[in-house]
Amino acid sequence: MKQLIIFLLAATVGYLHQQSVVSVTARETRNNEQVVRIAASTFEFVPSEIKVRKGVPVILELSSQDRHHGFKLSAFELRVDIKPGVVEKVRFVPDKIGKFTFICDVFCGEGHEEMSGTITVIE
Amino acid sequence: MNDLMNRRDLLKLAGMGAAVFVSGTTLRAVGSQQKLNSSFYFVQLSDTHWGFNGPNINPDSQGTLKKAVAAVNALDEQPDFIVFTGDLTQTTDDRKIRRDRLAEFRDIVSQLKVKSVRFMPGEHDASLDRGEAYQEFFGDLHYTFDHKGVHFIVLDNVSDPMAAVGEKQLQWLQADLEQLSNDARVVVLTHRPLFDLAPDWDWATRDGAAVIEALLQHQNVTVLYGHIHQEHHHTTGHITHHSAKSLMWALPEPGSVPKKAQIPWNAAEPYKGLGFRNVEAVVPQARYEIKEFPILKG
Question: What ipTM, to 2 d.p.?
């Protein structure tokens, strides 16, 4: 029983840590791709600050925790609908350095206008 | 400047201690085959966001719209009609509160002396229920009307939460335009900009390019809109686009700051950036003029 409680506490802490992540640097796979998982919910993206490397393909794995959201990264001409139960994968190659804003472009509720994040492309 | 302008120039507002800003913007919207023997003006109010509560942004959120109504009623010569270009209310996820706000807004603007008032929704009014509540109070989401030789088209680019006009409405627009001569005077009233003003700030219409392409077939088209809470002027081809100020909060110039955010209230300059405007159709000279009016303390 004691072990079970410890396991549940550890799992909870791990979950909360993952949920509170605001900033993340993309992890790179063996295929030389940068993979970033982004969870959308009312009214935030987690993570909302992402770092990627220039010239290395990026795979965004987008999911919704509650309702229909959108993901729009106009600097790279990307947009996709994000609906609950579906993980949308978007691939692009960041070809310029800078800090670029992404937004939810589906009006999703009272806090919709605050729902945004940034992708920073570094060398 | 014509007689109508002279009659209205500052007289009543000067008596109220008000200032008037003349933008100097000239709108061309007059065709050669229309009856050009009359001029008129109308008032545009926008983005009233009734129900908003944010003391740091607008501590007079309950009073600003009422001040605007009083200011319009105090105009020496009343406009032919008044338009509200969307975001009448602040959005809410609560269906009952949404209707309460729409009802309260309707009650307040019923105090306008001019009873010819045209409404259209903003995303705050209509995006969460595809315009269901809005239509209960104000009727159609898109429609046309004619006034003294000018054809007004009210376009809905908000009831689709993805900020699109949509294929069905686009076909309706094209059918309407086909009935007009190429030089007909057309004024489009809508909420969001039809062009990509600032896509990262959600200041665009997803299929706005298709709308503009349809409108470009006509020589004299002007678009008046809201949404961006400031005066802004832009041209796509021969079509001019003019946004109006808000009556609740101001927003920064597009792209001027990294993240779009409401401009905080400045006690030293209350109501700065808020206001409404007159659009004067000088029909015989094929000229329209915009005059901006601030909201004043007191």
Answer: 0.82
